[in-house]
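Re: the pair you flagged

First of the two:
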Amino acid sequence: MARFLVRRLLVMIAMLFAISLVTFLLFIVALPNGNPAAMIAGRLANPAEVHLISVRYGFDKPIWVQYVKTMANIFEGKAYSYQSGFNVLAEIGAGFPTTLSLTLGAGIIWLLTSILVGTLAAIKAGRYTDRVLTVLSMVGVSMPVFFLGAVLIYFLGYQEGIIPLSGYVPITQSPTQWLWHLVAPWFTLSVLFIGIYSRILRSTILDTINDDFVRTARAKGLSERQVLVRHILRNSLIPILSLWGLDLAQVIGGGAILTESVYNLHGVGYLAYQAIGRIDTVTLMSVVMLTALAVVVLGALTEIVYAFLDPRIRLQ
């Protein structure tokens, strides 16, 4: 087990290094119109001003020196936005409660709803219910987040006044207002994942339903409900829970950028949205690395838990 843990730790470090290197090269080296100093100085700056900015921020140093310094600043919390001057980690920390509230609420909704829809579709496979759920799932997968959010805001916000038009209220300030402001964003963010997860769960259940251990459970005299809950669903949920953990980490790291932008929720995704408009490379790199760190760490923890539950995984 110790060897497995060391191997997974080394893989995690290698993945973070590779992601950080690619991210740096994309945002600094491969950026259109190249020189970050010229972007910071503005179009009207003269060459002398551009040179001063290059020296100030270290853009005149070799690429590997810039990479080491940039990543060290990001992970030590010393990275500052070139355009706005704020501490990036502080801004991420300020928006993190909003993103966490949005992510956890939506994550619970899409997980539970996907289990219900996927299980029902599998039980009714080939029947009218299954066809209806399949169509609804495809609609959910095909529905753009920004379009669904705009529709809900217009009809339920402007027209009916059922939901607030935008904004976020901390749960410590008012739990009722917190819930009221997040219901529509939760639904908007969940729809896509419900469509994907329910189809995956349906296929997994149909693949599992004829396995030997299921036949054995039926031969022991268990009811179909007991077989479904204790054996089929229990085993079919493993890939869903793995996927859920990774998607949750990705959304926490700024993956809800469209939802936060549509509903004007000032979280990590909204910070990334603003950084894109300003071409704020330091902020964008910080958000990308936050997402990568969350996904890699949660993925590694998932594998470790599986290794405790199933020793065969340790051999992989």
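Second of the two:
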Amino acid sequence: MNNNEFENSVQTPGNAAGVNTEKKTGGRGWQITRLSPSKGPSLRYGVSLPYGGTTEQMSRFLVFINGRTEWIEKYAHVPVDLQLEDDIGFLTWDHRGQGASGGERAFIEDYDSYSEDSRHIIHKIIKKKPYIVIAHSMGGLIALHATMKGMIKPDALVLSSPLLRLPDKPVPEIFARPIANVLGRIPAAMRVSSGAGAFTKGPFEGNALTSDHDRYEFIKANPYPLGGVKFGWLKATFDAIDFVNDPENLKKMITPVLILTGSDERVVDPTGIQSWIQKAADHTKAKIEFDVIHGARHELFSETPAYYQKAIDLVRQFID
């Protein structure tokens, strides 16, 4: 890895001053740098490794695919709390158009771009070593899309609050789909914000993301604000949801999947998750597990300790 940037400290809710994280991260540090594919924008990615370790010394990896509006440092605590062995690397990145990666902000023409970025980074860093993917929200849809397309080949998928149906607010899906289908094809309109997706504008009380005040403030202080979703992104998301629900695509699915959601989910439509699980049960031979964390909201990895630890325990049990 070309270490253009090495960080012994990361910004987390309990680390606002960016203090040295050697003790807080259980002997792990972060290498954060950029990758410039031959096609597409430059991508900022990060690898969490034991201090003194290199990617070449790792025998396997956990790959974390984050969601819309998210960035590397938001999940800096996850590899530590998973208590990863010293031969396991943790890889994540900022999607094109968000975080500190290149690309047009908040815009995507199709999920093939997200999937190709995933393939490229995984191939570059992990090469042919085994890996498991953990993905949150929009990342869950990307992970399924890329896996079904054969662009990535994880040993297993863990999907946290996956985006498998868009919420009916502010516009019900019956109207949002045809609107996005039309406007998402018009160059002048596809880059116009729909006004949806602003989940951090309000106060902590009643927010849909997390019941942990400190983590909500940390998410709200995103150093890479994105703005509302654009009609081009909406159309691409509807298309990707249709793709991963297609019975013919599900028949090719052989990767074991664990899906985790909170019982107080208000960001994605949970009926989409239930529908996908039923279709997967009907059309794939892959092992599908489903757990609901009662009381938790959308951000399972940014929740209060009780809910968060439950999510971590379920992930550990599954990947072990």
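The domain at 6-319 is CATH 3.40.50.1820 (Rossmann fold).

-B.
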